[in-house]
Amino acid sequence: MLLCLCLLAALAGLGVSAWVRRSVRDRILTPEQAAADGEFDCILVLGCQVWADGSPSKMLRDRIDRGLELYQAGAAPKILMSGDHGTIGYDEVNAMKRIATDAGVASEDVFMDHAGFSTYESIYRARDVFQCKRILIVSQEYHLYRALYCAKALGLDACAVAAEDIRYRGQLYRDLREIAARDKDFLKCIFQPDPTFLGEAIPISGSGDETNDKYTG
Hints:
By secondary structure, the chain is α/β, with parallel strands linked by helices. The mean pLDDT is 93. The chain has helices at 2-24, 31-37, 58-72, 92-102, 119-128, 141-153, 171-191, and strands at residues 28-29, 42-46, 79-82, 110-113, 134-139, 157-162. The longest helix is centred in the N-terminal third of the chain and has 23 residues, at 2-24. Helix 1 crosses helix 6 (141-153) and helix 1 (2-24) packs across helix 7 (171-191). Helices cover 46% and strands 12% of the residues. Helix 3 links the parallel strand 2 and strand 3 (79-82). Strands 1-6-5-2-3-4 form a six-stranded parallel beta sheet, with helices on both faces.
């Protein structure tokens, strides 16, 4: 009996994951399609690991590079770097902004969401804190389905562009973990809990310098 229940739970989880993918797959664009649209409020680059010296992991650097490519192509006038800055010693977003400004992007065009602790929270805060209505999400493709599903459930008009199409070390583990993550965020999107932090609005139409030094820990 227990084995049957476990099997049913596993099948249900796989079904939810497949539904999440299928429901938003048409929202993933090529860089050329996104640039031709050019009507997004911002490019939302989702954070991931930075190393102890503050340098980005390969996955994060590929996300940032794609975001910069889209910005330079005119897909959106602003970039929103969303990631984890929950402790003094760990800071994804300043590393992300520094790469953008070093590449010549004006500081006022780069916003930092210091409390983007999860995909769901990054999307929620893009809507409620940064007052976005139409966003272009950048991450690796396997991750984009979940981000797009969260955006759809939260009422945002969102499309996405994948970062460089390569297989990263440990990708099989990430693919398997993502199935559970899609199931988790599917439930979150039903109940829509508040993120860890909200705070005052910082409209994406303003200056990204308003987000400088807003450590959340």
